[in-house]
Description:
It is a single chain. The chain is of the alpha/beta class. It has helices spanning 19-22, 55-61, 68-74, 110-117, 181-195, 208-214, and strands at 6-17, 28-39, 42-46, 64-65, 84-86, 105-109, 133-137, 141-144, 147-151, 160-166, 169-173, 217-221. A 7-stranded mixed sheet has the order 4-1-2-3-5-6-7. A 5-stranded mixed sheet has the order 8-9-10-11-12, covered by helices on one side. The longest helix is centred in the C-terminal third of the chain and has 15 residues, at 181-195.
Amino acid sequence: xxxxxAVRRLDLGYFIRPASETGGPQPRVEPVLAYLxxxxxxxxxxxxxxxxxxxxxxxxxxxxxxxxxxxxxTAGVALDDISLxxxxxxxxxxxxxxxxLRGKPILVQDVELATARRGDYxxxxxxxxxxxxxxxxxxxAEVWPGVWIIPTxxxxxxxxxxxxxxxxxxxxxxxxxxxxxxxxxxxxxxxHAALHGVEQPLPPYRQWLDRLADFDPRRVxxxxxxSVWEPPQAEGR
Length: 237
């Protein structure tokens, strides 16, 4: 069981990250990607797109939204078909469609929800809306056969990723655990160098990469990068 999960990427628009946040002289256009998971037990939606924000946030990021209903329709799915929602975290560009899914279970790390409810973190109306139904997770959990939530803190303290067993290997929906596949690859290499006993100095890597390695991921997908990480050929089966 749990090896029949199929993943489809959903394009939910983009935003402009200003130069003050890119670390360089130019702004950057970043996609906003969600993922639809077809499993024997139902449909999982991992992230839900860009929510409406206040005028300052709108001016800062200049988002362009694609309606969640439209994106799901291209996959032959309606909002009512979704069984379970998983948010990697609760910033407005990841949980924006949650109010459209009122009554559906939303899986989120308990620390993430607590942080969001303290205010000055996200758009409050996207968190406690009528019909919001949270199932709080404290750490790691196998939510369906072959489907794991794994804490991947860094971007936020309560960030989480979704790990899916498939017939041809494991897929990780990493959300914003890393902004880019290339950065994930760099930390993977740093981890390998450390494990191989290469002398310091070495760049640091997030310790949860050790846990992800236990699943032997074949593909890692991201929320703001269309690129997909795959292991080097030397690591292949």
